[in-house]
Amino acid sequence: MSHVSLSDVSTYLPGEPIGADYYARFAESDDLRDNLMFRAPSFRHHVAPEETAADMIERAAQGLVDRHGRDVVEGADVLITHTQVPDMPFYGGGGGIAHRLGMRPSWVLDLHNGGCAAFVLALNVARTLLTSGQGRTALIAIAQNAAGQVFDQPGVRRKAQSSVPGDGAAVGLVTVSDRSPILDVECRTYGEYAGDMTLAIDPPRKWWQPGAGEGSIGFTESKIAKVLARGNRQVPEVALAVCDRIGLPAKDIDLLVTNQPNRVFLRNWRDALEVPESRHLDTFDECGNLFGAGIPVNLERAICSGRLKTGDVLMMAAFAHAGDFAGAAAVRWGGRD
Question: pTM for this structure?
């Protein structure tokens, strides 16, 4: 029986890079200013004011169209999407994205719980559907658009947390083939942590209620300590679970690609897995925290730069939100068609 492969990925970064001095000029006294979680990257990108998630994904998909033809994109049987900030609160973007890409898929799924690990979760869903005979091709579309919308609000941009996020989008192509087989996937839900990521508004109100206060992430020193402990533990755990099942010592991973919340996590994860920095690719200083788009953006960077070679075992791993979800996936890369 044929395997299911991650055949290609294409990405998009909006606008010109924005330097760290952009936030430095807005920064005010903040109890969390010196926290290691919020050490700013050198650059990041911001979604344009009128740019929608569908716009970003259409632009990201263009690379797949150029390399594989429009029929491959339009004829995909499955579309799986994740948008950090949905353009409309009542429904996901899957239907609109399918229309924008000219698709008539049998399956359209919006995944919101995957967060920064959404690409791994979507790979698992796509592999399950294609293995069960629900089609031969799936697209995974990820849009991270919170940096230029939520974190660039006039009141929120003064906070330390706002200097880290960046925006970007990616579309992955998953096919029934043996070229770049998905070797194994591990997904874990930690529901007990689901309420630990909160929206803080001053004065307090529900997010949908009218009011003057702007919403930001409700970080405190205590919450940050918990998230650091969970993230440091969860990402190596899921990666090691996959390594164990495919019979690969973690230190022999050819390329590690993770989400990239900050430099501390990046260092701790590769140390825990005994993967040298040369085999752990990130774009944190160029793009900041890309949330769910981090893994596919870095993956395409690795492909284009030659860091990921034919025959290499790629390990993707991430955790989401305050630690309520984590996932890892291994792929034996067969090169682009």
Answer: 0.97
Using one digit for the tens of pLDDT, what is the confidence trace for 275-303? Answer: 999 999 999 999 999 999 999 999 999 99
Assign residue 301 the CATH number of its domain: 3.40.47.10
Q: What is the rounded average pLDDT for all residues in the chain?
A: 95
Mean pLDDT of 174-189: 97
- Does residue 208 belong to any structural domain of this protein? no
Instruction: Choose the final residue of a domain: 178, 209, 240.
Output: 178
The number of folded domains in the chain is: 2
Range of the domain at 131: 4-178
Q: Could you give the angle at the alpha carbon of 27 between the alpha carbons of 23 and 33, nearest 5°?
A: 105
Does residue 313 register a pLDDT over 80?
A: yes
My answer on whether 66 and 111 are in the same domain is yes
Same domain, 12 and 155: yes
Lowest mean pLDDT among 130-139, 196-205, 259-268: 196-205
The pair phi, psi for residue 313, each rounded to 5°, is: -95, 115
Mean pLDDT of the 51-55 span: 97
Closest alpha carbon to 80 in 55, 66, 98, 68? 98
Specify whether 226 is located in the same domain as 261: yes
| Distance separating the N- and C-terminal Cα atoms of the chain | 21
Count of alpha carbons within 13 angstroms of residue 208, beta-carbon side: 3
Q: Tell which residue, 235, 260, 63, has the closest CA to residue 144.
A: 260
Quick one: pLDDT band at residue 33, thresholds 50, 70, 90? confident
- Neighbour tally for 8: CB within 10 Å: 23
C-alpha span between 233 and 153 (Å, rounded): 33
Summarize pLDDT for 68-99 with one digit per residue, the tens.
999 999 999 999 999 999 999 888 899 999 99
Of 121, 154, 178, which one is at a domain's C-terminal end? 178
> Based on the domain organization, do 14 and 116 belong to the same domain?
yes
- For residue 69, count CB atoms less than 10 angstroms from its CB and return exposed for 0-12, middle for 13-18, buried for 19 or more: exposed
